[in-house]
Amino acid sequence: MSIERVCVVGGGAIGSLYAAHLSRVADVWVLTRRPEHARALEEQGLEVSGRAEFTGRVHATDHASKLPEVDVAIVATKGTALDAAAGALAGHFPHAMVVTVQNGLGAEQIVRRHGDWPLVSGVTFMSGTRHDDTHIEYILDTETWLGPYGDTPYALVEEIADLIVASGLKARPFEDLRPAQWSKLIFNATVNAVAALTGLPHDRHFAEREHVGDLGHLVFDLVEEGKRVAEAAGVELHEDPWEMNVLATKRGSRHYPSMLEDVEAHRPTEIDQITGALVREAERLRVPVSLHAAMYRLVKAREASWASD
Amino acid sequence: MSIERVCVVGGGAIGSLYAAHLSRVADVWVLTRRPEHARALEEQGLEVSGRAEFTGRVHATDHASKLPEVDVAIVATKGTALDAAAGALAGHFPHAMVVTVQNGLGAEQIVRRHGDWPLVSGVTFMSGTRHDDTHIEYILDTETWLGPYGDTPYALVEEIADLIVASGLKARPFEDLRPAQWSKLIFNATVNAVAALTGLPHDRHFAEREHVGDLGHLVFDLVEEGKRVAEAAGVELHEDPWEMNVLATKRGSRHYPSMLEDVEAHRPTEIDQITGALVREAERLRVPVSLHAAMYRLVKAREASWASD
């Protein structure tokens, strides 16, 4: 098949980066939650600054019923909004491939409940800062990793990866995505929860292990717990999450993990999709994860603290 | 001996409650950090509202050299300010008994470094809200527990407890304070750190253990770790910290632990004196305390997050 039309579901930072870039090589429709967001995209296009500078022309709507047939749908909502987004797609474009790029585990199963599209699993490391509805700053130009879910032929995964690369972003197809997915799951469960609870961006404290009170000890122990779960699940990790952590803090980017942004804005976090998913897998596999369980309970309690806002 | 003159070091919530009440049965001097605080106390006295309603007349100064001889000095600063406060007392009133009421462990050793006064160990459960330099609201009218430190005769402890009771506060002497001190240490290490990290006052969430994500599981596990350290230290606890927790949350007071107030005000917390003390004892006794170590590292990292304020 050749991919001519793509739907990007969700106009957050990640969705906007895909939509703007893909608009250079395909006809792009963005499905937004808010009608005024869709209108602004239709009228003004989507401006990219930072790592790339251009304005992409896209179509947009807040009604799935107004979407044309597409070849690929990239669902780029937060994990917390995925079920509603996939529900809105039910019955639409039966011949499209659907790509999930949510953090954590379990996004594919949630989408599957709403349709039998061929599914592609994605993990993305790129990041951006959303300045407003029609302007996204491209910050980290790192890869999106893609792999087949279930029966999806690998050739389709390669085709989507090629399209993303042609659009100016970075992507890489894997025959089995689980090693990469689990590396990022452990990294995310650790770094996001620690950042959310401490208020620290992902900075040098995450790698410090000199004194007994240093944060790096906790980060290391969380990664170790996560690795024991991956091992019990039969997954050989693509990258060591502790090394990913050390490398990222050395780069000095002081990246603000999305869970820290959520906590500061008093929004629901992805803790259930990330750390919660890891804790549930650990329970199923009977691997003790007292530290991740502690982080899970602390972040959920933090959410409860603003429930009365 | 008969106690006629008392010095209260520190005019925070706890120091103000002692000073105002004791002024009804003794001559009270308050040693403050700020000169304007001392002036205000000298001029306006110390107003108590809430559980009691009166204004106590006190003397006050910000210079230890201006203090007269006293029979008892109650050091009621935060643990973080204790070393400086005890240092200011060095060489003064050699015949006085010195009472410490800081949270955590180790206050007596810090004071001992600055003089050889007979020492009395204290643990206080009362609480107040400091409205301004001369007005304290008396909130929880719970006891102060006192016990001898080192060679201090128990009779002196009883005398101080009697004086505090005569002043209208609640107090109780113990021949061995360690069982009570450790009960409060474990309670404080758990409740303060959890509150500081979650933003929750001490409310019903701390006792909930229904779902896997419920906070009460973590609180329970932290208490269990603490009890194992007490046991290794040969201390039989005076009260079960888990029951103290359940009881306090049932009272529905939604008490704001001081560490949560410190975190919200971006002040240094007592984490080193409380959880840090417990972790150090555990290390010395070779008891694993991975959860308390995690809390210790998280709160210290939280402090680091506002280091650049």
Commentary on this structure:
Two copies of one chain form a homodimer. Helix content of chain A is 42%, strand content 18%. In chain A, the strands form two sheets. An eight-stranded mixed β-sheet of chain A has the order 5-2-1-6-7-8-11-12, sandwiched between helices. Chain A has a four-stranded mixed β-sheet with strand order 4-3-10-9, with helices on one face. In chain A, a hairpin with a 3-residue loop joins strand 3 (46-50) and strand 4. Chain A is α/β, with parallel strands linked by helices and 309 residues long. The longest helix of chain A has 21 residues, at 178-198. The first copy, chain A, is globular and about 55 Å long. In chain A, helix 6 runs antiparallel to helix 7 (215-232), helix 6 (178-198) crosses helix 8 and helix 6 packs across helix 11 (290-305). The first copy, chain A, is built from eleven helices and twelve strands.
How would you concisely characterize the structure shown here?
2 copies of one chain form a homodimer. The first copy, chain A, has 11 helices and 12 strands. Chain A has helices at residues 13-22, 35-44, 82-89, 107-112, 154-166, 178-198, 215-232, 241-251, 258-264, 275-284, 290-305; strands at 5-9, 27-31, 46-50, 54-56, 59-61, 72-75, 97-100, 119-124, 127-132, 135-140, 144-148, 171-173.
